[in-house]
Amino acid sequence: MEQLTDQFQNIVKSLLIRHQSILDILSKGQETSARVNRAVVKSVTNCGCHSVNAHKKSIPPDASLADLKDLLDSQLEGKLCDNCRDIIEAELGKQLFYIAALANVLNISLSDVLNLECNKLQTLTIFNLT
Fold first, then answer.
1. Tell me: the pLDDT tens digits for 35-66?
2. Backbone phi, then psi, for 37, in 5-degree steps?
3. Does 125 or 18 have the greater pLDDT score?
4. SS3 of residue 18 by DSSP
5. How many other CB atoms are found less than 10 A from the CB of residue 84?
6. How far is residue 102 from each of residues 2, 16, 17, 62, 122, measured CA to CA in Å?
7. What was the pLDDT predicted at 96?
8. Cα dist. 103→4, 28, 40, 41, 107 in Å?
9. 32: how many CB neighbours lie within 10 A of its CB?
10. Are 40 and 102 in contact (CB under 8 A)?
11. Is 64 in contact with 52 (CB distance < 8 Å)?
């Protein structure tokens, strides 16, 4: 995995020409995040391959933190169609591009970030609460 993230980060570094300013990278990161959100929303509102069944979940008073994993869910129903999957994957790819660009301009290794986060999650397990 480390090799793949390093390779991806190096490719981004070699390809980023127009948006090298930290301000450009931050604003493009926000834009790509909004496009991911919009693509997911359109899978519900335009395509209909997904639907949202959102309501307050009833949590028993004696439920433990471990129980929450089974009691709570994404509130999403259905399955992404191939077209929506392709669009969302493409938008996530663009988002990853600008995450790598931000890491590059700040001289941060994505591999290091992923390793740190993985170690934190493994240590804190469900107490991470993210």
1. 999 999 999 999 999 999 998 888 999 988 77
2. -60, -45
3. 18
4. coil
5. 21
6. 18, 11, 13, 44, 26
7. 96
8. 15, 14, 25, 28, 6
9. 19
10. no
11. no
Which amino acid belongs to residue 72?
Answer: L
- How far is the C-alpha of 87 from the C-alpha of 27, rounded, in Å? 21
Residue that the structure tokens 């929303």 belong to = 41
Structure token digits, residue 130: 């993210």
Averaged pLDDT for residues 26-35: 96
pTM (2 d.p.) = 0.85
Find, among 7, 129, 2, the residue nearest to 68 by Cα.
129
Band of residue 106 on the pLDDT scale cut at 50, 70, 90: very high
Cα Rg of the chain (Å, integer): 18
Position 128 confidence tier, pLDDT thresholds 50, 70, 90: low
Q: Is 48 helix (H, G, I), strand (E, B) or coil?
A: coil
